[in-house]
Amino acid sequence: MTKGYIITNWTEDQGLGVQLSYPQDLEVDLDDMMRIFYAHITGAGEAGNVLVRLEKARSNVSSYFTGMESENQFMINFIMELGEDPEIFGEAVLSEINQNIIFYLKNIKQNPANSLDITSELADYLKNSLSYLERLKNLTKEQVMAQIYNSEKGRLILEILQEKPQTKKDLHNLLEEKTGKFIPNIDILISHFVKTDLVRQDWIEGDSDITLFLLSDFIIVRRPVSKLIDDAKKGVPNPYVANKYIEIATSYFSNYTPTEEDNLKIAHHMINPDVFDYVVLFREKSYPINKVPRGPGETFDQVRTFLATLEADNVIKIIKDESNVEWIFLVTDLTAQKFYPEYLIENIRKAVTEDILKKESAIKHLELLEQVYKK
Question: How far is CA 139 from CA 132, 152, 192, 215, in A?
């Protein structure tokens, strides 16, 4: 289980001080905090992330520093258990949370008269963020594929394995070379591919390292909601909104072309459990807006916020009927669809011909692909 957040601030006159801890009883030794700070400022002291292992606190810390050149030198420390790694949650997710925290911190600095209220709001945000991060550990296979796509490292691993099989060490080296970043734990990244049955790990006789074979590929895509379209053709929930829905869905998909920008937007929604729960709910039926089921402790305003985000991204549409009742319709279903990577057969042949892939690895890969194809 994740432990929480410790936010510190560096000033020339007072040095490093803790601005906020959540939960309040979460403590890390000041010497350990300084270790993290020095890890950031070694070199140019630029904005960025570091991962530090704290033996005394028995914690891994994913820390973001705003940089020595920033107006306020904030350090946001996400405290995890020793066995946890930030890659479990995804770099993009943690980056978004960090940026939201910085927004609150700047607001506190700019509005000292309201600092207590804003700090209380920040504490609530941290509480909700930790609950959200815990839920990311239990994503479905479909959501894990979206998590892979939502990650720069995940997309790069997929691109590398689309060419030919790689040993774990070679993949690690290529990934660091292409990203220009130190990657402390390649196993967490690989586990996402194994969990979704995209990759098989196996040994090749004579090799000292395990080899990774891509057996399935996937795409992130929007698709029509067949269940709702079939219902609408029958006049459900009522003829007026049903006809409107068919018009909207038909118009959208007649002009729909997948793009990386849109796919990243889809993936972002898919890995957000709160948002994706509504997508799954709306796959089955439309709802009057005042009867949309709410989660424990969720307010109607919070639901409205989720719905507004989904409508802005053309996922749902709010349609008013003749009585001015607002109905929620899922216009585009968000999915990760696996497919057989037939292109790999030619890529493997080419790699062997160019002498960049051993014959033993090629044979093993083709045998594994044949097994998948037969299934």
Answer: 11, 19, 10, 21
